[in-house]
Amino acid sequence: EVQLQASGGGLVQAGGSLRLSCTVSGFTFDDYAIGWFRQAPGKEREGVGCISGRVSIYSADSMKERFAISRDNAKNTAYLQINNLKPEDSAVYYCAVPEARSGSYCSPRTPTWYDFWGQGTQVTVSS
């Protein structure tokens, strides 16, 4: 059974940093892409970026400035580092995995490209 567990969220002040983790089980982690998304209340789910192999792809150039996606295959864990947090970053952050292997490609923006989702971790940024 494929399972994803996102963690590391919390309440932080603007300008702070967080590192979110996504620990997975039930499949060979090394072979699959991991996507990161976020959803604020009343808004659609938004892609942050993804990583496949060692290649990270971000949904927008603006995401590259403050977000960094990495993975540790030995720990079956992917990470989302967020720096210089802003109130507009407040959202539930999700990680996701596609059902199929994708080589060095992953979709940084399309939630429907992914088949399995973690439960999300809440990030709240105070001004």
Please describe the structure with a list of short key phrases separated by commas or semicolons.
127 residues; mainly beta; four-stranded antiparallel beta sheet; globular
Termini Cα gap: 40 Å
Uncertain parts:
none
Number of helices: 1
Percent of sequence in beta strands:
over 45%
How would you portray this structure in words?
- With 127 residues, this protein is mainly β.
- It has 1 helix and 11 strands; from the N terminus they run E-E-E-E-E-E-H-E-E-E-E-E.
- It has one helix at 61-66; strands at residues 3-7, 10-13, 18-25, 34-39, 46-52, 55-58, 67-72, 77-82, 91-97, 116-117, 121-126.
- Strands 2, 4, 5, 6, 9, 10 and 11 form a 7-stranded mixed beta sheet that branches. A 4-stranded antiparallel beta sheet has the order 1-3-8-7.
- A hairpin with a 6-residue loop joins strand 4 (34-39) and strand 5 (46-52).
- It is globular and about 40 Å long.
Question: TL;DR of this structure?
Answer:
The chain is mostly beta strands and 127 residues long. Helix content is 5%, strand content 48%.
